[in-house]
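User: quick one - fold this with nicotinamide-adenine-dinucleotide bound?
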Amino acid sequence: MKNSEDLIENTDPSINSLKKLVDEADRIVIFTGAGISAESGIATYRGAGGLWTKYDPEKYASIEYFRKDPTYYWNFFKEERHAMMAQAEPSVTHRAVAELEKQGRVSAVITQNIDNLHIKAGSKRVLELHGNTTRFYCCDCRAQYGLDEVKRLADQEVPVYCQKCQGIVRPDVVLFGEMLPANVIDEALREAKICDLMIVIGSSLVVYPAANLPYEAKLSGARLVIINIDATPLDSVADLAIHSSAGEVFPQAVGYES
Ligand code: NAD
Ligand code: ZN
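Assistant: Sure. Structure tokens for the protein plus nicotinamide-adenine-dinucleotide:
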């Protein structure tokens, strides 16, 4: 990695400012939202290119609705989600984050995403606040199922029933109406409090309690960078807010060459 004296010539000044902050940091935490995966072809809920689908997220992502009618989720899975998740590949930004971790600069990736792309890119310490939509488990006996296995079962019958106990199988995600996993949020909070630089990538920072984490990092003395196309409520407290696509900014600032 180049040092901060070695700024990139003819470059957007905000990229050089980010590069300087990264070079000065010892313990970086990356906090990501749906925007980092937009460049992998997965629609965000908010902002440019927001989610459009014939299935309603208020239904397929709600625990109340899942209890009432689990076939709705499973039809959505079968027709839309499986293909999207099976095909999506990490973006250059996911890969640059993984490379920075490999260099020992990143202590954790905290993500609101459920798409498995940080893990697919090679990140090792990924704190998934909202779970992972490529993993599944039985509501009754907790037996675990993988993405392709549930697709095979869903093609035969929906909803998907547990092969061991006939309970209903569900995605390992935090649905609307459910609590975040306490151990993950505790660990994320700990990382936020001890990092010296938090970089938010692609989050509208309006979904709580996740959006508290950048604020906690800042309160604990870390520097805060936000890279998001649209403005966020935390831009005014950030040391640097860059309103660009992640892929145009982050890889270059950390010296990642794909
Ligand atoms: P959000 O949908 O509320 O906001 C996404 C933000 O990303 C927007 O403000 C937009 O300006 C920005 N953005 C879009 N493309 C970008 C790009 N190329 N570079 C940088 N920024 C870009 O996302 P959120 O804050 O993560 O909250 C949404 C909730 O929905 C989360 O809880 C998340 O679990 C869930 N969700 C997840 C996925 C996923 O796993 N990929 C996708 C949609 C929603
Ligand atoms: Zn079971």
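One thing worth noting: The longest helix spans residues 70-87.
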